[in-house]
Write a structure and sequence with these properties.
By secondary structure, this protein is mainly alpha-helical. It has two domains: 72 residues, Orthogonal Bundle (Arc Repressor Mutant, subunit A); 82 residues, no CATH class. It contains eight helices and two strands, in the order αααββααααα. It has a two-stranded antiparallel sheet with strand order 1-2. Strand 1 and strand 2 form a beta hairpin.
Length: 165
């Protein structure tokens, strides 16, 4: 059974794109993969051969590309990691969606499962805890944009004290 650690960042990107194409178009073709990744078709062919040898894709030059069960599992794991990091960057760190997505694409290959698990828990926490939630993330976003501002801090503390009464 292949793990993400057996794959290069590039191979993970191929699996993720193949999965996205299959979900969106019901098929993945060499040209579509090349377009999505911004690479030449011979590069895609080489990658598909390697992924096929690892048992992650079903590749025949004259057929559409499909993922094996193992390939789909790994692709979903990469996609989940990407979505989690992008959401954290957008929601918690107030990064614009395009920048968050680009950075998530680079970061997804290096994040350990324990770190990913904590990011997921943190996002769940801010989604469910009444003291964290949108207020907390909005205030952090304001802090990121304006830095430490005694007037804003005083206003925040005053509002917090009033809600606790």
């Amino acid at each position: 059974m292949a793990t993400r650690h057996d794959l290069s960042s590039s191979m993970e990107d191929y699996l993720e794109v193949i999965h996205q194409l299959i979900v969106k178009h019901k098929a993945a073709r060499v040209r579509d993969i090349a377009d999505a990744l911004g690479v030449k078709m011979p590069s895609v062919t080489g990658a598909l051969k390697k992924l096929s040898q690892k048992g992650l894709v079903n590749y025949d030059p004259h057929q559409v590309i499909t993922l094996t069960d193992e390939g789909e599992r790994v692709a979903k794991q990469v996609a989940r990691t990407h979505r989690t990091i992008a959401r954290f960057l957008e929601t918690v760190l107030d990064i614009d969606p395009e920048t968050a997505d680009k950075n998530a694409c680079r970061m997804e290959h290096a994040v350990d499962e324990v770190v990913l698990s904590r990011l997921v828990k943190y996002l769940e926490y801010i989604d469910t805890c009444p003291l964290a939630g949108n207020d907390f993330t909005e205030r952090f976003g304001t802090f990121c944009r304006h830095g430490k501002n005694p007037d804003l801090c005083e206003q925040c503390m005053s509002e917090r004290m009033q809600t606790k009464k």
